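Encode chain A's predicted structure.
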Amino acid sequence: MRPAVSRCRNVLLSLLGSLQLLCVGAYAQGPPGGAMPPPAPRAAQSAAPFDLTGYWVSVVTQDPRFRMVVPGKGEYMGIPLNVKAKQAADAWTSGPDEAAGKQCEAYGAAAIMRIPERLRISWQDPNSLKVETDAGGQTRVLHFGAPPPPGLALSNQGYSRASWQVYEPPRMFGPPPPGGPPPPGSDRAPRFGSLNIATTDLSAGLLRKNGVPYSDQATLEEYWNVYPIPAGGAYLIVVSIVRDPEYLVSPYYTTENFQREADGAGWHPTRCSLTTAP
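Encoded structure for chain A:
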């Protein structure tokens, strides 16, 4: 009897091994027709590491002398201008631009976040974030993942391509959360990061309302971060980098601060102006 039992056991183990190989081979091959399809990318709105929607007001902590009032002629300190830019700023007057309806050139993407103002931020669609300013009534649209379309016309706000830089730290200490640890990428997973924005296709404009220029070759790079306030609310910190081979000798770095507001009670859109502050 023992030899028969032994033979039966060997046959059974052989069959089980063959079945395992078949299952592994089928798994490796994936579905009929080729490899497993990659998971669908998450929409930018659901992938956001922080909430930007709502109202924000400027907190002017940098260069109030040039932001809270209209700077005088020659007040271009702090901006790395070349000789050509200084000559253009010294020769500039607001009258011709006002008469030509070019007031909003001082409210282009390279300068708009520096103007003391309120922002109203909302999702235009799951992959497009809309940023409205009450100063000058401007609207920026931040496009996640979508490159600028061919033949795009230059404009004051240009074309902004955005992406989330997200960090999801592993849980290392403490008890597991209710329901077990969240899977990576889920809405329950802790996420930290920043919003990165690259803006191109800008028309020529002004970095300050006293004629300091930027050209249609300028580009804008931004990094937005939200920091909660322990007592409630949050700060939005925007680091901006303007590059312009025509008028700047080096990148122009600035930092703009905003504080979250509970509602839109202070929202008050104004027209573009070259002669009034802000």
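The radius of gyration is 28 Å.
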